[in-house]
Amino acid sequence: MGAPGTGKGTQCAILVEKTKGAWTHLSAGDLLREERQRVTAAQTATDDDDDLELAHTIQNCINAGKLVPSSITVRLLEKGMKQAYQKSGSTKFLIDGFPRGQDNIDAWDNQMGAHKVTSCLNYECPEQLLVDRLLERGKSSGRSDDNMETIRKRFQTHVEACKPVLARYSKDGILHTINSDQSVDEVYKQTEKIVLGK
């Protein structure tokens, strides 16, 4: 967990590399963006109204800096987990950008409750530094949500939506907060210690 730009994806990528693929990284945001693109492409060919509705739901939420309905996100995560298991036998997953609210937790518990959540890493960083990081990323990412207006909306959404998530995992004793206003290597040392026990 963490606001946009805190380095969640970067840390997951490093963990996957360091563990030689023992862990699979799934980004809720990337899965949603990929599905939006895939569904939009399919719509062009098939004119399927259901596909068009799903594509519009994802597109509108992302552009407004809002959260996509939890049922869609959990369905995409489950699909990603199954694909990773079929491809490599992976049973350990680093899911970044999820859960981001009580409805995410409820959807996960209802659909994926058999899968144990072992840790929740919460990356924190000063907001202005995050704005600078995201605007810099926006120069090359091609992401429509890396602009000032959407970034501010995403920060507001993150802070409000994550309160129950932090409370839940703190109560469960699995919440770990990491200061990501450091070098990537320093942040990784903390991350590795929590995830791998090193």
Topology:
Elements lengths: L7 H11 L5 E4 H19 L2 H15 L6 H19 L4 E4 L5 H11 L7 E5 L2 H15 L6 H24 L3 E5 L4 H13 L2
Parallel strand pairs: 1-2, 3-4
Helix pairs in contact: 1-8, 2-3, 2-4, 4-5, 6-7
Written account of the structure:
This protein is mostly helical and 198 residues long. It has one domain: Rossmann fold (3-Layer(aba) Sandwich), CATH 3.40.50.300. The chain has eight helices and four strands; from the N terminus they run αβαααβαβααβα. A two-stranded parallel sheet has the order 1-2. A two-stranded parallel ribbon has the order 3-4. Helix 1 crosses helix 8, helix 2 packs antiparallel against helix 3 and helix 6 packs across helix 7. The longest helix is centred in the C-terminal third of the chain and has 24 residues. It is globular, with a radius of gyration of 17 Å. The mean pLDDT is 85.
Question: Quick summary of this structure?
Answer:
The chain is mainly alpha-helical and about 200 residues long. Helices cover about 65% and strands about 10% of the residues.
List keywords for this structure.
9% strand, two-stranded parallel sheet, Rossmann fold, globular, 8 helices, mainly alpha, 198 residues, two-stranded parallel ribbon, single chain
